[in-house]
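Extended Data, panel c. Modelled sequence:
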Amino acid sequence: MVLLHGYGSDGSDLISLAPPLQDALPGALFLAPNAPDPCQGNPFGFQWFALDYETDRVASRQQGLPAARPVLVEFLEDLWEQTGIAPERTVLAGFSQGAMMALHVGLSLPHKLMGLIAFSGAFVPPEAFGEQGLGKPAVCLVHGDRDEVVDPKYSAEAKVALEPAGVEVSHHVSRGVAHGIAPDGLEFAIKFIERLAKE
């Protein structure tokens, strides 16, 4: 399982999800890489792509995700080559900006990954999305209904965009939760993984 952190954070933050997720995937390897660039908004953290808070964050995503995609694709390909773990046994999960990366990259590959988990994210379709030749892994979307950083409507919109393309989507809304991962949202993701592991 590859865990992708949010804007201004680092891998050591999201690796804390490994212990509860480990119960769903006993013996799994958990990795939480740092994003490639120092964060413009936090000198102690990292970013997958830059954000422009003063103008249009949607445009930042639309431009930043395709530009950041090759870095994560290379990381995954190196992981598969070095470990012998197959793409179909790989879960890509992320929070916030990392969730956007997980969805964008995970749905752009010719391989069908085991699954994708997006906590508090948004979906920007990769090039050629919906066409034949791309894998369509099952997707788990989790979002707090009081998120003021990434509007929860983006997860709802992702579900609407993904299902007609043949992607199986599990969607959970955590009530009264802001920009974070609540216990009920984490439990929903664990159940999602457990279901995938049985297939």
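The radius of gyration is 15 Å. This feature is highlighted in the accompanying rendering.
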